[in-house]
Write a structure and sequence with these properties.
Four copies of one chain form a homotetramer. Chain A is mainly alpha-helical. Helices cover 57% and strands 6% of the residues of chain A. The first copy, chain A, is globular, with a radius of gyration of 17 Å. Chains in contact: A-B, A-D, B-C, C-D. At the A-B interface, α1, α4 and α5 of A face α1, α4 and α5 of B. The first copy, chain A, binds a DNA duplex through α3.
DNA sequence: GTGGTCTAGACCACC
DNA sequence: GTGGTCTAGACCACA
């Protein structure tokens, strides 16, 4: 359960954390009960204000993905939709795919080259991990 | 030259306009001289603040994609790099593809289903047009 | 749409705001589209930090009760469950009733005196308004 | 003398314990000398940190409701104001009633349905015991 | 004008 | 040790 934060990203830090945790939970990489790094740990590790991390955790709790264990920290919620089906996870990916399709259409690009470009990106992604 | 605006989208309205016009010009769908709908027309059609549309047009003018013709409104600039190569246009698509690849990785999705989902989205996109 | 804030209350200010707005929306006192006082107005009126108010509004937005109109402020959401039925509103009251029933049971109190006490409280409440 | 603990409740565990014991003593359901379950028993039975239970007992001792008997644990204090008058016990219930009245007002609910709902809750409460 | 984000630091409550 | 709340103040993005 390690987080990657990009301080210069257009989208805010707290949302980066929310997104990453949500996807990892959805992918089943964090079964219910998994303990998250404490607010202070994350804040120190990434040189970020604790409140920023706290805000992300609060939002994840509101979404029902995390649970607070008083005095102990946050854990992945018991009712968290762990390891959702491929179909469900594709649905989580839908907005990003939609954006690609729309932009590709406006750019007058055909299916072939776009798919090929995506394939390459995904292979790079796997190599990096 | 019709615009699609999503008021509830996470990215701001003015940027939606800039992005769409830029992509359509790059695709050669609007040859130099093509007249754009007036600020007032766009504002009225989409119930948007005219200043927002104006800001988008101003930004496109600054990028050299549009020209202001006195009394006539904005037109696609003569020096606009119309119909850029596929390679160039794919590069414009890169950030969106990057985002898909990253999220797919975090969701633990394989290449196959993702590519298939994108293919379907793109075919829908074409049908709608 | 005026808010009442009790700084010395055990439950936090931002939650007081959330609760009040939610109940007023549920009661149909604020039809969809009603504009809320701006963050800065509320903050100034109650000598509270703007972030505290902002936090409340953000939470109400996450619950789907409010919508952000960019540059204009927050309004009651179109899909907000306006003027819910008495049955629904009683359900919103359930936790508080539950608490009374539990405590009354532990105090060994009969139904009669408790109901009478509640009746008096509610009449006081109405007089104050 | 059995306790009911709600780990997910908004109010803290130690306060739940304090409240319940105080109300049961006030109701005369536990005459002076009644032995309370040991810290370890309560902690084990409810999967709660022993320190939390201990803190609750300490607070009740400070209030004069419990006494520590060496080697035997906590018992209800001799000077505990057992079986207080109905009037006194209603006063202990006042904050909860206040909360119901306030929320009902904001929800635009009339006295009738609220009283009826409370009546039902209290009858359920009695049946469960 | 609107809300959003982040920081630094203080204090509290709970376990 | 944990997270929560609030403040004061700065800066940004949007309309």
């Amino acid at each position: 359960m390690s987080l990657h934060i990009e301080p210069s990203s257009p989208d805010p830090i707290y949302r980066q954390i929310v997104g990453q945790v949500a996807r990892m939970v959805a992918a089943g990489q964090c079964p219910p009960g998994t303990r998250l790094p404490s607010v202070r740990e994350v804040a120190a590790a990434h040189a970020v204000n604790p409140m920023t991390v706290s805000k992300a955790y609060a939002q994840l709790e509101a979404q029902g993905l995390l649970e607070r264990q008083r005095g102990k920290g946050m854990v992945v919620a018991a009712q968290a939709p762990a390891s959702r089906s491929i179909r469900d996870r594709l649905q989580a990916l839908a907005p990003a795919l939609e954006e690609v399709a729309r932009q590709a259409g406006q750019l007058g690009l055909e299916e072939g080259p776009v798919i090929e470009a995506l394939r390459q990106r995904m292979q790079n992604e796997n190599r990096e991990q």
